[in-house]
């Protein structure tokens, strides 16, 4: 493992915030707001006190009195200490309301004078606490905040429990925190609930996820940590915030990061915390635990094979001390917390560690594990050890464990002599490629930079530059300086030039948005690879060329796809997210072959998961989610999209693309506000990365979310920009983004039917040429709305009915439901019964919740109408009604244009149509007509 040193640029912590506890705090907040009490519990360092402070600060503002107490383990033997913390400063305010015996008992307990005890003054003291709380509550709500309940003295806990059980409807709420073990054994917190009211909600603080640990480390100033390091911190800390921060601090302060295969350095503070029971172990038991900590999955049998003859008895001794967890059905020796294992290993000397690895190198049954232990037990260069590690790395790669392969590859490089074949740099570069496959881009980049600092061989240098460029992902503009250096290193070698021109093709596509240049570079890379006999990179280049031609609507696209699918194939390219299989999937989904597309992408997803290809997994999860979305399976699509986004955030791969797709899924089957937030995030990331290709898609997602949210002007702003971008990029195929119908619909809503028709006509020409049937059906739905806006209601209804039938036959369930919804809305504009039942049924079948909510609102309230009404005015289209209503309010043409987000010229043209339909001549006549209708 390599730690980048540039993360030392910021070590200043920022103010405390609560990370990863939003759902927990929301539940506790609701409980407190509803008049209940809350008990927060979890292991040491899990963040209980932070949650308690956040809730107390928020809820404390809504109450009259806040009573606080906390204690330490050394104070737990002092009677009534917690009671004094709670009541010492407020008792004088209400003491005069207590009966004399109660006042005397309470004063004695709080001051320590008179040697009050629960045995002697029991009832009087209990009643005094109850009476005091009731008296305080009579003046306003009371909040009792008690942290570290496990250290409160038993006398105070008993008194609190007595009062809590008798407060009834009194406005006294308790907010408490208590330490429980790392893993719950039964209901550990039950006995502490006896000190709280009966309606107390117990909430457990669970471990943080890897992404949340990364956020916490970044917030505290430990920034720019490689994701592989964050992964190790998360694993070692078990998601415990305190442990994670201490590990992050230790790495921040360390000048010698751990070598590959070695665990993280464990600071003394944590060793003391987790190993305080280690002194009770015998020397032999401690050695046995060290061997267990060095192993990947230790069992008693493995420990015995490694020379620990009394493994069962010694692990039982450790389990009795709480260092190990015994499992009835599993023979695995498991530490009670990952940090105990790490601390034991860190505590051992270098000689002791090597001895443990040497024992395991012969005892372990798995050849990968044996090779790893052999490397960690060996010092210096050793070609035989390096060869065994190289074989183990290949085996790990074949098993679908590229992260393990990367670690083993670096170990192999460390033991490889400089004159060996393969050499140390070649092994490092293979490790970097494995790290990329595993989604550990920072790790891969660091390895590549290490090679570039040392290597002189052109092949090693070009391949290292390719790793640097690949690790940049869609932010290729950030590594522009790498391209001329890579070309210089490549010279006239066709194999090396293949690699550079393939990346130049991606740069032309993502950074420049130049499809023609991208296609040319892709074709050149394919030709160079063929000359070099490099079938793997020839296939990748052909797949890229096919993808570009697909987006361009180029007639050669099907033929290029066929060339990319021709045998012989490379198995890893075949399932790559940049391979021909992925391009074929894109062609299928754009060609409305949803069933075949689902079958193709599902098979690809299964294969990359088997191989551990994380970047491809993120990509194919999005592809499957998109397929389900097109088919109208909104719930399934949302689950897949969210899974893709979680994985993207964990790895830092494709976050903009996953946010974009998840926005579309949220707008279809989740929450519109979430859809808007994700789309804006995708736009911001694409702009930051200089990724013009994905910027258009992110803006299309934002426009769609705005449409579902009912913000037609916002939709128009976003999608007009998409139209401009794609015209500049040369994106011809409307099936790529499918935003055209949304733009036309929104243009109608803001009173721009002419522009809407222009969008429809332009898109229809291209869709007809490319045979995009579903796009044509959506355009028909949009044109029906244009016709309706022009008053051609019957024509619009016929067109909508045909569009709905056509979309149903194509299998586009959500678009079919939208057509039914538009048809129901159109029928409300004429007399007679109207039913939204069909639209509601179709949206419900799709689990399209945002759309269903719109339908249900329309079923109850009817569609929103302008305030103008009457038989004559019913002939007006929606925009005409809006303009007429604003005229009635006295608005000028310029004011109407500003409020409806249309041009003054459009207002004038709309008014001309209004005058013609109503048989009037001026704005004054509109006011008179409306006034006459109201008086009638």
Write structural notes for this entry.
This protein is mostly helical and 936 residues long. Strands 2-3-4-1-5 form a 5-stranded parallel β-sheet, with helices on both faces. It holds the Pfam family GerE.
Number of strands: 7
- Strand content of the residues, in percent? under 5%
End-to-end separation: 83 Å
The helix content is: 55-70%
Number of helices: 48
Q: Uncertain spans, ≥5 residues at pLDDT below 50?
A: 1-15, 863-871
Mean pLDDT: 85
Structural class: mainly alpha
Q: State Rg.
A: 35 Å
Largest sheet: 5 strands, parallel
Strand order of the largest sheet: 2-3-4-1-5
Based on the model shown, name its key terms:
single chain; 936 residues; mainly alpha; five-stranded parallel beta sheet; 48 helices; flat; disordered N terminus
